[in-house]
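thought: user wants a sequence for this fold. calling inverse folding tool.
action: design(structure=
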């Protein structure tokens, strides 16, 4: 019994680390490469489309976001969130239909609605005046990030089940 619990915690930690790494990778692809552009001139920083306030937060107002100047704490923090997500997954998934895809999608939807949808509403829309079209694009990015997290966690958590 003790060995099963240890194995369960190890699997949960690995699933969470994988979820966090998947989130970091998809964030890099979506927000950094597509949204901000490698040259910093992507659609999310284009003054023709984006609010001046949001551009200033990302590029001018000191201190700049940590993810811009010191990304390591943010990368590690997202892996930490992945581990928390894996423990939440472990707690919730017994009440869901079995299967990596079914459980991964359910968890991704939960993360998307409870975290990313709220974030976009409260911060970019409410505080930074971001236009709705760019919020919609970011919600697509966040949906992909949530799916990467949910499926990475589910794939490892459900392995051998």
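)
observation: tool returned 161 residues.
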């Amino acid at each position: 019994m003790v060995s099963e619990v240890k194995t369960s915690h190890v699997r949960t930690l690995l699933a969470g680390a994988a979820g966090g790494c998947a989130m970091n990778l998809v964030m890099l692809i979506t927000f950094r490469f597509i949204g901000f552009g490698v040259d910093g001139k992507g659609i999310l920083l284009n003054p023709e489309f984006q609010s001046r306030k949001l551009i200033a937060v990302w590029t001018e107002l000191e201190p700049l976001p940590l993810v811009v100047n010191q990304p390591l704490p943010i990368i590690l923090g997202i892996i930490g969130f992945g581990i928390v997500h894996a423990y939440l997954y472990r707690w919730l998934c017994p009440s869901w239909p079995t299967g990596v895809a079914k459980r991964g999608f359910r968890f991704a939807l939960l993360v998307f609605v409870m975290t990313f949808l709220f974030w976009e509403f409260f911060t970019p829309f409410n505080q930074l005046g971001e236009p709705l079209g760019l919020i919609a694009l970011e919600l697509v990015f966040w949906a992909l990030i949530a799916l990467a997290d949910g499926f990475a966690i589910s794939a490892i958590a459900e392995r051998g089940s």
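thought: summarizing for user.
answer: Here is the designed sequence. The CA atoms of residues 116 and 142 lie 6 Å apart.
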